[in-house]
Amino acid sequence: MSTLETTTETETEEVEQEREETPGDRRRELKRERAAERERRVEAELDDAENTRRLKVFRYDPEVEGKEEPRFDDFVVPYHKGMTILDALIYARDQYDSSLTFRHSCRQAVCGSDALFVNGRQRLGCKTQLGDLDDPIRIEPLPHQEVVKDLVVDMQHFYDQMHAVEPYFDPDDLPEGELAEQRQTPENREYVKMATRCIWCGACMSSCNIAAGDNEYLGPAAINKAYRFAMDEREGEDRKQERLRIIEQEHGVWRCQTQFSCTEVCPKDIPLTEHIQELKRESVKNNLKFW
Amino acid sequence: MSQSYDRGTVEDFGRWREFSAGMWAWIFHKFTGWVLVGYLFTHIAVLSTSIGVDPASSAVAGQTDLYTTTLRGLEDLLIVRFLEVGLLAVAVFHILNGIRLLFVDLGLGLEVQDKSFYASLVLTGAIVVASIPTFLGGAI
Ligand code: SF4
Ligand code: FES
Hints:
The structure holds 2 protein chains of 2 kinds. In chain A, a hairpin with a 2-residue loop joins strand 3 and strand 4. Chain A is elongated. Chain A has a 5-stranded mixed sheet. In chain A, strands 6-7 form a two-stranded antiparallel sheet. Chain A is built from 11 helices and 7 strands. Chain A is of the alpha+beta class. Helix content of chain B is 73%, strand content 0%. In chain B, helix 2 (21-49) crosses helix 5 and helix 5 runs antiparallel to helix 6 (113-136). Chain B is elongated, with a radius of gyration of 22 Å. Chain A binds chain B through residues 60, 62-63, 68, 70, 120-121, 143-144, 146-148, 154, 209, 212, 257-261, 264, 271, 273-274, 277-278, 280-281, and chain B through 1-7, 11-12, 15, 17-18, 20-23, 25-26, 101, 104-107, 110, 113-114. The complex binds iron/sulfur cluster and FE2/S2 (inorganic) cluster.
């Protein structure tokens, strides 16, 4: 009996040894080792960290079976002073779940790709300090936009609205000489300065519930873009008229109901409502006739 | 993109706790506006049907007109007195917020839009409280 057992064990060992040699097994083993190593590192880091923060992250993946239903995943990340939401998300993705999907690029509030809905407000992930928020930190994709996967929303409609105001110059006369500058007075530059800061993050559009209810409404960002050009002294007269025609249509400036949501969430502090109101007045002036 | 997730309207309304001053001002303005429209129609309906002589009192001396009897009848009801206080609150807030919006339209006080909303609320409250003796006087 014992002999038999010994034989079987030896045989099994032999078989196992044989199997270990297949490349698939080696890969799997390596993967397991790496996962264990990562686990150890995370544990150590979590122990080391002064304190930790808990993220509640919205998850949704229509292409993976069992993940089509939206849910929230919890991630505990070590907290260091100066850490941003984006840092925390990157940590969670790198250490826990490589399928966690979100957009980012510049990490310095310039590219506008990481606007998220954090603790009930539209914010840029890279600009928002973890330390300023209460635990657990709830991270969701931008509201009023369709979710493609996890924290990524479909921005196409926002871009369409931005292009709808024809955001480019068309001056009446160009300066002489091919390389000559097209000058603008410092006062005028100052006047449109804030409006030029838009980074196309879409936070304002997502916070506006008029835009949410009316798909054709141009939205704060697009109107601000129109303002940036309409108020620029270098813009040609015809183009300005054309622009005013676009913004004073039914789904243009008059849709704004001064909720101030856009102004409150804009990460670049653009006074959007103010610009929209100014364009309303501009369009009234443009249409006033005394005859 | 094969599929996407639309969170729908219900979820949006569920976020009411996250609304800020401007949003509440908008909601209250719409709400009070609709209440006033509703009131005006009821008002027209009641007044336009209470004309002529009250058949119940015509036999009695004095010949009270229907209008007076109707209004007296309504004023006798405590609930109507309370509703009048409510109507005043609704009208005052709508007027004050309307003025606030006028300033916003003119580009004035954009930085204090939240404070002016709170001020409208406080003022509405004060006016309503001050009106209570008049409206409920003698009724309770
Ligand atoms: S206006 Fe502000 S919130 Fe809107 S897209 Fe531009 S930067 Fe983002
Ligand atoms: S990563 Fe570019 S704006 Fe945040």
